[in-house]
Each structure stands twice: as structure tokens, then as C-alpha cells.
Queue: 3 jobs
Job 1
Amino acid sequence: MSIKIQTCLPGAEKYHFALTCMLMYLIISGTNRPESYTLRIAELYQSVLKKKNIDAPVLSLIGLDLMVRSPSVVQMEKKWLLPAEKYIFISPEYNGSIPGVLKCLVDVSDVKKVWKGKKALLTGVSTGRAGNLRGMDHLTGIMHYVGTVVHPNKLPISIVDTLFNEEEMAHQETLRVINQQLDEFINF
């Protein structure tokens, strides 16, 4: 199976093909806000998985129009959502829940083909102290409704704005729990 490895940003696609027999993982950066901590955490997950010999593309929602099921949405679905067997959602807290654009991604997709029978891992991101716990509960309910099995270790990453130095994640305990969460999900 060929897997495309990249951070998927509209207009900036780069392809690298790798042969693998592993399940395809897809990391979904659940916001359309540019330069967000959500995307940085998604890319951190990608890097950690790479060290575990798992190539996982990051699907960024920046610049995507998900209000209607357009030809570009269908193309994105075929390229990224359908081939994935395991999803890793990185979701910021927006008003005590998930961003509307992330809900639109689910709503505009072919739910039975994209989500049913697959697995998901959830990580919440916030600059506050709860790490989007409530949003992860909402996303769990949505995923269950569409037939996706959610891993029980949902990681809330709080005060995310204090965890990075200029270039990388500086908080070692956060790195440790991310590694633990991913090890569990790989075996899930």
C-alpha cells in the first residue's frame, strides 16, 4: 500500500511514497486557524509516530471549505479520510467544545464509508487548565454516533502555550504521556 506522508495544506502538497503493510493513520488538526498550537501538537504526534516507524500524514483544516460537499471535499475524502483506518484527532477548545470546522468535516463526509468501523484517538488542546475535556466528550459522542470506536485514553493538554520553546516541545512529562498514549493506540 502506498501512503502519502505530509502535512496537507491546500496548495502546498508535497508527496513522499513509502511501502508499508501497516494500517494507515491520519492525524487531523481540528482547527482552521493558522499558526495554532493545535497544528504544532499534530506535527509533534507525527514526529513521535515517525520515531515508532509509523508514517502518519497530518490533515490540516486550514483553508478548507467544509460547508458543502463540493468536488474538492470529495477529493480530500478519497485521498485522506477513506484510506485511514485509525484517526488521531487533535482538537482545541472552542467555547467549551470542538471547533465548528471539525464538526463540519464529519457532517460533510460520507459517514458510513469514512468513519464506521474505524478507530480514533482524541487529544484536547487548550491554553486553559482543562485541556478541552468537555470538547473531547462531545467529540467522543459524535464518533460513537457515526460508528467509530474511541480509545479510552483521551489526553487533555492544558496550558499548551507554555509547553514549547522556540523550536520544540520542551515539557518532558507531556512528551512522556503522548508516547504512552500513542503506544496504547498502536496496540488498540
Job 2
Amino acid sequence: MIQVGLDKRLPSIVMPDAREGQLVLSAPLAAGYRQQVLSMRRVSVTAMTPSEVHRGNPLELVEHMASSQLWAFERASDDELNVVVRGKWANYQVLFTWMHDIEALHLACNFELKGPERSNAEIEHLIPMINSQMWVGHFEFWPTERLVVFRHTLVLSGGVHASRRQCEVLLSAALDACERYYSAFQFVAWAGAGAREALEAAMFETAGEA
């Protein structure tokens, strides 16, 4: 197994060594991502080498980053790159989508939230409470699919080229947010806690680990 981290403040990211076999990825959350999530299929991929992409497409940087970190990934098209990251609390599926028409790199990082449907209403209360604390990006909850999704976008208007550091920070922000608030979602889904109680407990837990 290989342990890597984009930021010292983040938990180590553990991904299988390419020699240990294949990593199973699910189909991408592409533009129009909700419809595509509904038709998710399981595909098996191995470590890939950077593909030929259009010049200026920041996914080339992301793909090189994934390759250098020995992450398995799926390149569904020139404009979509799907990576699975194993965090402290869950496996996160991260989709990078290059939206060339508006010159923006979109990130959607999701994890499955299992639990009784009766917790949905309180989770819906929890989402805006968490989002009010976010400086960048935001969370969504898809009750039918039982997915929590963190979304963030890097705007590159005017032909600006993304740097590798910008792509790293984009991913680090998503992983940090998911790891930070994961327990709050779990408190509501499984412990039956109220939204405010769950958020306060998660923040206390996070402060204790600092």
C-alpha cells in the first residue's frame, strides 16, 4: 500500500500500489452529474499513463498529478477524470470536469451516506449549517442516491492556465471538507442526533485532533 498526502494538514491518502492489482472505480459524475450518477456502473481500471488532450486543458495537470502519486484513475473522455481516494473515514470518488465553454475546472467529491430515510429531513437541515461555515465550495445531499457531494470550481476565464499547485489545492480543499464534516453526517444518520448537535460534536472532535 502507498500512503501519500497533498497537504501535511490532511490525513494521509492511502491508495493501492499498482502492483497489488486493480482498483474499482464507478462511472463519472460528469456535467449533468445527477443524471449520470443514477446510471452509475462499476468498471475496473488499472494505473494509466497520461493521455493526449487538448492544450490548455487543466485535466492534463490533474492526470499527471494522479500518475505521480500512483493513484488509479479513469479518463472517461478528454474533459472528465475520475479518481478514488481512500480517506480516514470513507472512500471518496472525485470527478474533475473541464468545462471549456465557461473556462472552469469543476470538482465533485462524493461519499455514500447509509442510514434510515427518517434521518433525511435532519440531514437537509445540516447541509446549510455546514455550508454557512465554508469559505469555498459547498455540500449537497441527494437523498434518493444516498450521496453527500462536495462541489467546488476553479475559474480560469480569459485563457488563464491552471497550475499544478492550484489543482492540488482544489483537491485538498475537497478532501479536507469531507473529512472534517463526515462525522456530523454520520451522527445524524446513525445516532439520530439533531443537525446542530451533530455539527457541534463534529467540531469538538476536529478541535481535539488539532
Job 3
Amino acid sequence: MPFAERAKLRLADLLVVITCCALGWVGCSNAASETNVAPGFTVLGTTNENGITAVEVSYPSDSLTVRGFLYLPKKSGRRPAVIFNHGGVSGVSVDVKRRSRDLADKGYVVFAPTYRGEGGSQGRIEVAAGEVNDVLIAADLLSRNPRVQADRMAIAGSSHGALISVLAAARAPDRFRCVVDACGVMDVVTWYQFLVDSKGVQAVSDSLSLAIYGNGPADRPDAFKVRQATRVAADIHIPMLMQYAKQDTIVPLGQAQLFLQAMSKAGKPAPQLLIYEQLGHAFWFWNDSKSHTKEQLEEAEKSWKDFTEFLEDHLKKS
């Protein structure tokens, strides 16, 4: 074969090698970038909206693989973090994602867990039991993120997520700097009786309630004990904000009062309690002018401002 043709082949081979190396470097770079975005998590998908990066991830919890959403702020450098626990048992809703972005827009790294048994996570719904493990494992993984100030992490939640937050804060007092409870069930025994008295036995006769609580406290005392936030009041060693609504027909204001009594009995400082006169359940997420009055929406927005100012005081200023 003439020298010129052999030279062309060698040049072509070289170009192929260079191209493959370049593609390999790009792939490595992307993999490294995903690892840096969410170390310890498996990245399932990434979106970017108005500078806020949202990353859906999975991670191991006990023997399960569960999911969640990580939100990274526009602001560079290491940032305070918030574990943001949703209410209900149907996964991370559009409203929770909206509020997670709002928190990220204020400069926080936010993680919204998709607890076991919902939203693509393995396992079964346990209601403030194994879900606490899911949240604490996520918090540990988040603390290793290069974007996170590990010593400036809060845990907060609404309704079911509020109970999870308080139980997690009691179990891992050194992980979080503060905890926020919005309309959470703090005394499951009295709440169960409230539902029966106010809504009838059908309120606790759905398949999930029966699976978790059986026929009530006398039937399954341990199921109530493990979910009883008043029982762990002595283990809350960090600042706490409690937000409750006077018109809440799902979790009454008395739940907050019972927790305050438990804190007092344990000799702990009283949490800050804020009560909203016109609001009902899950008020952080109210934004529908067809369902709520202008005054209610203004108070709902105030509740969110109160929450974010509490975070500011304990994660950024102190």
C-alpha cells in the first residue's frame, strides 16, 4: 500500500481515537457532574426552571429504594438546607414542588422526600414510622452534598410531614438546627378520638387506618405509642416553630396545646406557636382564589412568610 494511503488511514484512525476519547471525557464529565449534584443519590432526571435545578433521585432506605426531589438554588457556594416533608400519603404534590422551589429561590438547598410506598418508592405506607427512617437517611446523604452547609439544616413539614419532622428531630437532635410543625398531629391518641367524635367511625375505617391503627388505641397501643410526638417532647433540643389554623377541621388547635404541655412537663422551652384565625388545613399551599377569600390568601401567605423568617433566623443569621 502506498505511503500516502497508509498515512491517510493512520490519520483517520487517530481522528476516531480522538473523537472516542472526547466522547468518553464528556460522558465522564456528565457522570461526575451528576455525582457532584447529588452524592449518595441515584439521579433519575434533572430539570431547570428560572435558575432553580430540580433533580429527581432515588436512594436506599432500610432494605428499600425510595425517591425524592432535590432543589438547588441559583446562588453559588455552600448553602443552608431544608428537609421539606409533605403531608398525606400520595407523594410529592405539585404544591409541594412549588413551595420547594420557593425555598430554593431564597437560597436554600431543599430536599422533598417521596416516602416509602408512594410516588415510585418501594415498600408500603407506614404513616410516620418507616417514613422517619427515609427522612433521616436523606438528611445524612444531603449533609455530604458539596452545596450544603451540613451544620445549617432544618426539617419542616405539614400535616403528616409535620409529625415525621418532629419525630425525626427527636431521634437525631444533632442533625438539625431547627424544626417546623405546620398543622401536625402531635398526640395520635386524642386525634383518633377527635376523628371518631367529629366525623364518625367511618373516618377511621378506611383500609389504611385499619391497617395501621386497627380498632383504636386499646386494640393496638404500640401503633399509637410509636407515632406519639408528645412522648418524645423531652428529646427536642432545638428551636421549634408550630403553626396551626383555627378553622382546621382535620387537625384541631388542641394538638398544638397538648404538645406545649408535654414540652412544659419535660422542662423544655416552649416552642413558638403561631395561630391563624381564618385558615384551615395545609395552609402553606393555599393559592386558589376560587376556593379561598382574599383575606384567607393573604393570611396564608403570611403563614409562609412566618415560616421562612423563622428559617432565616436560625439558618442564616445565627
